[in-house]
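pinging the channel bc i need a second pair of eyes. not urgent but kinda urgent?? the chain im working w is below, pasted from the shared doc
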Amino acid sequence: MQTIKQTGLSISFLLAALLTSTPLSAQQAADAGAADSDIRIGNIMPYTGPLAGFATIGKAEAAYFNMVNERGGINGHKIKFISRDDSSNVKEAVEQTSDLVEKENVLLMFGSFGTPGNLATRKYLNDKKIPQLFVASADEEWAHPKKFPWTMGWQPTFRAEGRIYANYIQASYSDRKIAVLWQNDQFGRDLFRGLQEGLGVTADRIVADIAIEADMSIDAQVDILKNSGAEVLVLNCAPPISARAIRRAAELDWHPVLVLVNAAASIANALRPAGLQNAVGVISTSFLKDAGDTTWKEDPAIKAWLAFMDKYYPDGDREDAYALFGYAAAETLLQVLTQCGNDLSRENIMRQAASLKNYQNPIALPGIAINTGPTDFRPIEQMRLVQFDGNAWQPIGDVIESAFTSLPGDN
């Protein structure tokens, strides 16, 4: 197997040490983030930098909480959503998280984006017993309830998603060679690992893989992958790079089966920049409804989401999957806070987050329910294969249970 790796700056999670030496003024009063009048929620997003396309998640969440406040809040409390920019920089994520806790006295951190920054702040938040809830990353690290009882993810894991693609390729294209363009970080490594595990003894069908950085030009790399003779191309990278790769393949008159990871499966941020005509037939996964799919034209939840976009996020793009993601994640947090009733202690917030039983988020695809428990910190464990038809993502096949029977380090 031909393997080519583009090296870049390594990220050190030792930056978390910066946090452990700071005083915790938020501890002056128990759970200071829940005042009589508001609930203070902290969030970290890449509003600038190479992953700024994901900032829509934070913008949609802010708009959602504005809607909730306009409707009276939660149990008489208004939400103060304080979202900060880390530019996809771990040191900045550490500093901003510290500021949100020490100066803004947030009750919890919610939906912060990305694996490195959340890993760097996880120990600090757990030591201070501050919920790090519904992390916007599909890494496996957010499901260790014994070791990190204050941290919980939300979406299916990257590794499980990789196995789903492997199973699909095995079933539908068992005789075809595979090439992989993968992002050289935790996200890229986890999904690639799942793909290799799913292929098992046939993993040697991966005839070429190239690891790239999030902000580099990749035309030459796509040329190399084409020349490998691969007939299946797995794009395991951020939306801008995925868009360039799809466009470059079309320019080369190379038409492999294209598999695009869920994190990049945004019509607005990946497929449209790639050229919709070049993206017809792309395979991905989903666990949320596609507002552009006519299947959901009369669906009450999608109608409500479109009305939300018109009123509370008019500058947002209806075809941006990250807006839908942010809305759905915020709606899940609303469910947790509503379940808390008048007890908005941090302990009760985590207790309720770990007590979701067959909760059907209105934006989730039918058959995909959210379940958690004291030893189960994986809220969503199901996905569905989808294919782009030039206008919307169309489901193919049945809902797939994406969780492993057993994962090391679950406890």
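so Residues 11-156+297-380 form a domain with the Rossmann fold fold (CATH 3.40.50.2300). and The chain has two domains: 11-156+297-380, 158-286. — does that match what u expected or am i reading it wrong
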